UniProtKB/TrEMBL annotation:
Keywords: DNA-binding, Transcription, Transcription regulation
Listed InterPro entries: HTH-type_LysR_regulators, LysR_HTH_N, LysR_subst-bd, WH-like_DNA-bd_sf, WH_DNA-bd_sf
Name of the protein in its database record: Transcriptional regulator
Keyword DNA-binding applies: yes
Organism encoding this protein: Sporocytophaga myxococcoides
GO molecular function terms noted in the UniProt entry: DNA binding; DNA-binding transcription factor activity
Ranges of residues in domain HTH lysR-type: 1-49
Amino acid sequence: MALDTFRHFGIAAEKCFVTQPTLSMQIQKLEEELGILLFDRGKQPVIPTDAGKDVIAQARRILKESAKIKEIINSKKGLLEGEIKIGIIPTLAPYLIPLFLPSFIKKYTSVKVILEELKTEDILYRLKNDLLDTGILVGPLGDPQIHEKKLFYEPFVAYVSKKHTLYKKKILKEEDLEVNDLWLLQEGHCMRSQVLKMCKASGHDNGDSQVIYEAGSIETLKKLVELNQGVTLLPELALADLNAGQRGMVRYFYEPEPVREVVLVTHRNIVKERLNEVLSEEIIAKVPQKMKKDNPNIINIEL
């Protein structure tokens, strides 16, 4: 499994706490016992053979089922302990983590939390390869290998330069936005896909901008609007740290306002079920009440 995950003998050996010759010998011994080749060593990175893929998939299932034994025992004892590895997208991490993490670790002192900011595609890859236990991202995804649990619906707001004509409006409509006026995140961020989809639906996906700058974070988008002319969209949780002057640049939308659906995702063959349950409960408890209500105006992601 480690060699399949990392596709490199040296890295896989390190992760398994053995030497590279030892790992190579053990895999060769297994191949001889099974009478098939599990990996094609003639390619770099090494890749599993067709037969190897099936064997590896079964090995993953076996180890997941084995890991559930400890989960069952802890549940019977009323214990909640262990480690949970969480991947969270960058447009959620700075605003959502401070809401739920302090209270979560205070309640569950025997649980070690490992958090990592990752793009959606990286979270899904790591879930499928047992490198993460949980992901927090924007859905729905429609991936048959992934289980999604809805957490909340987060509205978008516009962040408008004081030099822009939209600054004079108190409340905006989606059709007020034009792509060539918007500062956007880089390719690969699901929020970019949402914003572009919203503008296309409004028929405002035309025109060329003199400057095209694709930012890597929401904080950069805010600075661009503050120092230049233009507009960007912010998820509402990002407003918590704004000062009075910055709040004056925020414009809400008429109802139904654009929102995104935030979900907790796990692999279908989930192991740490109880840990994920209490994690989702803590997150839902900490977000504003209005975000907990069902909202039909969801902007679906197209990855």
